[in-house]
Amino acid sequence: MAVKTYSRRKYFLAVLVAVSALTGGLGTAAPAAAQPGAVITTPGGGVERSPKAGSPLTNLAEYPKLTPGQLAARVAEDRGKAARGPSVEQAVTELTSTETLDDGRVAVSTYTLAPGADPAKVADSLRRQGKSDVRLVRHGPAPSSGVGTLGSNDCAYGSARTVTCPNSWWSNQTRSNPVVLFNDHSSAAWPVTNAVYKWNQTPNIDSWYTWNNCNPSNVHCVDVRSADFGETGWVGLTTHYYIPPNYGRILDAVVDMNDWYAPTTFTRNAAVTHELGHVLGLGHNQWSGDVMYEYVATREDIGGENPALLAQVYSIDR
């Protein structure tokens, strides 16, 4: 594995040094609207009109990477909000199931809970459905992480956590940054385009969007789907695929959004933003005011510590 240029490592150090001195934030630009009105065929053989169909790849220059100062401002803003409350940093639950496939791959699914869902009851329901190796893991609050040098193998930064520890990552595939191309099959209710371009602001990894059309040339295609899965207790589900014993390198991933839950105490923008964060390698954030918190809520921006942690995970080429 190759260490990225010194300027990138210096970039992240600049963020860390600036955090303690900054209190401002940065707004998130909204992506360009998808082209409306195309007719698509549904899995059942019918047709529907989707505002997403025919959406072009958007010029990512319109959504530049966060600078060290901007990233540090976001981190400082979040830490200020967390200190003022009422949201608190607390232990979080990771609910997962693991299956070994016939081809030797291992599929690890991470579930994002609906508001008010009991993790233990959701876990029992998954076991009754035949899901294998269902686990509930409680993580205590991480030690405060302030100014300092992080490594590419670190699993936490402040309240942000990686989805696995040791962490999981996408390979570069000869590109300067790994590219995750989110291949959207979801209904118009799920604003995947908006979520993708928010995450594309993260340094050292690129997030692209396409509708129902994936060219796998040196990119990682990740399907994003939606369906009515019923009253499962989860709103979103992200599955990563690995080949043991190399559990760090992500081979593939898929996202499923559950249409059953009406967004009364959460937003679907927040839910899909949360799941795409899992895809890139983030676990559940320990701050209840964060978009990556274990229960989906209403916060829709990606925060500061989340992209800061990802930027460090992808600070080397693999």
From TrEMBL:
Tagged with keyword Metal-binding: yes
Signal peptide from the UniProt entry: 1-34
Domain Peptidase M10 metallopeptidase: 265-298
InterPro entries, per database record: MetalloPept_cat_dom_sf, Pept_M10_metallopeptidase
Keyword Hydrolase in annotation: yes
UniProt keyword terms in alphabetical order: Hydrolase, Metal-binding, Protease, Signal, Zinc
A GO CC term assigned to this protein in UniProt: extracellular matrix
A single BP term in Gene Ontology: proteolysis
Gene Ontology molecular function: metalloendopeptidase activity; zinc ion binding
Domain of life: Bacteria
Name under which the protein is recorded: Peptidase M10 metallopeptidase domain-containing protein
Lineage: Bacteria, Bacillati, Actinomycetota, Actinomycetes, Streptosporangiales
